[in-house]
């Protein structure tokens, strides 16, 4: 089992979100069993969900260091080890309790003693079931609620593993279904365990349900943020009386929104290194497979690498613009050659530049440089692949039109002209363009115009389901939708379409095609200032007298006027030298290494229906800008192909998996 994560320390003795999660699992759970245990080594038993919790937060070496010699699956047949103690980290379900009891009951239990840790609050009936078995009771060394049931996907991000939240909460047949309530209840519990881990009690803000007029009934779909906020609030209220040292007054902010706040962010091409890797390279999670020179002869062999925080090059470049990342990698490679005598000698011999493959060969002769050059050559290869795909798929032209549509610099005429003339653009990219257009202009799809656009783009009926469902994210549709999509009454605002974004003053783009920003970025800034629109966002709790996270003014200020700059065009990645827009890798590293102890109260944001990498990037950027650690949570973290597949699934009647539909 591969368990990898970032375990490095960040500034002072303050721990980031993932580090706190890791430390609770290693010290509060695993290490705590040492006190009363005579067994030096233990077996760690987990279910399919808790093993993922552990793998996102800890390395296998960390677990071994805490005295775990073997990691086992609760549901697989296991060898009896009666001389060893076992640690069970499991969800509090009936099925898991049955499996645990079968392991530990009777005359021949599998293990000597059991230390049981539940990932979330356990029902009294299940505890009673355990206590009923007189043979098991003396063999239990601990029975505890960890209240840790989320995936720490990033130092500032988590998911609740609800990959089908869009379908289960917002589709036509979601209302009144068992899945609707089950999804919301589980999501609320898992979000609450984040605050149990962090020992934080939030002020819970949420997007309110909107109706068109007094005669329109609010749908269950529109009430999802309200219901989730209430569910989280109920769990937190229980924690105040059941968890020792849980805060009794507000210590941070939580904002709950759904995907309707920004339908464009999950679809648009995002130009950061991280987003491009996941969008264009068909990664398996964070796993990238590449070819390296074989140690035995001239052939190559495949090697799997994880693009995660333990890779310093990835950590530095992941939020950088792809052009910036490419430039920095070239500089790093040049710098390596200039400081490495063997590389210089090779260069002099060959009378030219040292290629990545040459450097890889040199590694075999210079083992002390192996790790450094391995990582460097890996990212040079990845950046090269990305730049080739950008060129082959005409993505600069696609990206330019996407951003022009979003900022109101282009409309129907430009879109039609693009579809007619750009024959080299793939069907997938035309689909994404139409989805952005549909979010901005839903009314244009109420006539036969949608069929004409579909024909012009060469899209299938299956593709148009995604376009229509995207259109329905914008608001109510009183007319029958054309093209086979259903009506998703998602964000029932009087204004039916996604508004054009405005240029952000004082944040001029350092690179071409980087003026797009997620709506969530503005919302977080408004929350930090206490300026969330009162007619769109409510709060479950009024601030206590001791709460100082917000300004006292309750007025809703209007944002300053935005200047409309001339849009960037041209074939080169131009930027002003020395600029720092918060996204550049130097800036990210500067802020990441700053002393977190000086930061103000944390801000948590939860997006129902899937978050994007641009939103996760914004959380990192805003942490330094606002001097408050921003933690982004969501039901899932989606790249554009995944999100489009999920939109299609919302119209499918029969039970399918995400793998059954591809864009």
Please estimate the helix content.
40-55%
Strand order of the largest sheet: 6-7-14-13-9-8-12
The helix/strand class is alpha/beta
Largest sheet: 7 strands, mixed
Radius of gyration from the CA trace?
26 Å
For the record, give the distance between the C-alpha atoms at the N and C termini, rounded to a whole number.
Answer: 31 Å
Globally, the shape reads globular
Biased composition (Polar residues): 551-561
Protein name: SNARE-interacting protein KEULE
Region (Disordered): 542-586
InterPro entries: Sec-1-like_dom1, Sec-1-like_dom3a, Sec1-like, Sec1-like_dom2, Sec1-like_sf
Describe, in plain words, how this protein is organized in 3D.
The protein is an alpha/beta fold and 663 residues long. The chain contains 23 helices and 14 strands. The strands form 3 sheets. The chain has a 7-stranded mixed β-sheet, sandwiched between helices. Helix 11 (322-339) crosses helix 12 and helix 11 (322-339) packs antiparallel against helix 14. Pfam families: Sec1.
């Amino acid at each position: 089992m591969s368990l990898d994560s970032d375990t490095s320390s960040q500034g002072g003795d303050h721990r980031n979100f993932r580090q706190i999660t890791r430390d609770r699992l290693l010290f509060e759970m695993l290490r705590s069993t040492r006190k009363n245990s005579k067994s030096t080594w233990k077996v760690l038993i987990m279910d399919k969900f808790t093993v993922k919790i552990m793998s996102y937060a800890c390395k296998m070496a960390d677990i071994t260091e805490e005295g775990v010699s073997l990691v086992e699956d609760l549901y697989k047949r296991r060898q009896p080890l009666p001389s060893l103690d076992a640690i069970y980290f499991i969800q509090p379900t009936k099925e898991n309790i049955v499996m645990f009891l079968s392991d530990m009951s009777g005359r021949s239990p599998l293990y000597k003693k059991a230390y049981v840790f539940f990932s979330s609050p356990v029902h009294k009936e299940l505890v009673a079931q355990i206590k009923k078995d007189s043979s098991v009771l003396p063999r239990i060394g601990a029975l505890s609620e960890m209240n840790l049931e989320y995936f720490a996907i990033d130092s500032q991000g988590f998911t609740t593993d609800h990959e089908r939240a869009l379908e289960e909460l917002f589709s036509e047949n979601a209302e009144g279904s068992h899945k609707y309530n089950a999804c919301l209840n589980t999501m609320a519990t898992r979000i609450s365990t984040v605050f149990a881990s962090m020992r934080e009690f939030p002020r819970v803000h949420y997007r309110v349900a909107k109706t068109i007029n007094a005669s329109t009934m609010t749908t269950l779909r529109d009430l999802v943020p309200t219901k989730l906020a209430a569910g989280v609030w109920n769990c937190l209220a229980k924690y105040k009386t059941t968890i020792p040292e849980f805060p009794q007054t507000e210590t941070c902010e939580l904002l709950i929104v759904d995907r309707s706040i920004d339908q464009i962010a999950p679809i648009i091409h995002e130009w950061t290194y991280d987003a491009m890797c996941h969008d264009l390279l068909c990664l398996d999670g964070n796993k990238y497979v590449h070819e390296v020179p074989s140690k035995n002869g001239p052939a190559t062999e495949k090697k799997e690498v994880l693009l995660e925080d333990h890779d310093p090059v990835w950590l530095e470049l992941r939020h950088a613009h792809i052009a910036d990342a490419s430039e920095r990698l070239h500089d790093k490679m040049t710098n390596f050659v200039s400081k490495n005598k063997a590389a210089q000698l090779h260069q002099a011999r060959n009378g030219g530049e040292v290629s990545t493959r040459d450097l890889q060969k040199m590694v075999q002769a210079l083992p002390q440089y192996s790790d450094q050059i391995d990582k460097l050559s890996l990212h040079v290869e990845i950046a090269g692949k990305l730049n080739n795909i950008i060129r082959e798929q005409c993505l600069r032209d696609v990206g330019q039109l996407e951003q022009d549509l979003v900022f109101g610099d282009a409309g129907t005429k430009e879109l039609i002209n693009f579809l007619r003339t750009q024959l080299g653009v793939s069907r997938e990219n035309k689909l994404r363009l139409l989805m952005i257009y549909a979010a901005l202009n839903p009314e244009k799809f109420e006539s036969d115009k949608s069929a004409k656009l579909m024909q012009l783009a060469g899209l299938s009926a299956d593709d148009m389901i995604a376009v229509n469902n995207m259109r329905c994210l914008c608001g109510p549709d009183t007319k029958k939708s054309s093209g086979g999509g259903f009506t998703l009454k998602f964000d029932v605002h009087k204004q039916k379409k996604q508004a054009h974004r405005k240029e952000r003053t004082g944040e001029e783009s350092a690179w071409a095609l980087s003026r797009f920003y997620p709506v969530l970025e503005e919302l977080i800034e408004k929350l930090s200032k206490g300026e969330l629109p009162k007619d769109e966002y409510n709060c479950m709790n009024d601030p206590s007298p001791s709460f100082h996270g917000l300004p006292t003014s309750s007025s809703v200020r209007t944002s300053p006027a935005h200047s409309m700059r001339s849009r960037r065009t041209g074939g080169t990645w131009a930027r002003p030298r020395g600029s720092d827009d918060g996204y550049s890798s130097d800036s990210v590293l500067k802020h990441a290494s700053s002393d977190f102890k000086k930061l103000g109260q944390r801000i948590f944001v939860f997006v129902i229906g899937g978050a994007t990498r641009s939103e996760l990037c914004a959380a990192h950027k805003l942490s330094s800008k606002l001097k408050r650690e921003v933690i982004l949570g969501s039901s899932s973290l989606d790249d554009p192909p995944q999100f489009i597949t999920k939109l299609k699934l919302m119209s499918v009647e029969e039970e399918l998996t995400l793998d059954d539909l591809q864009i």
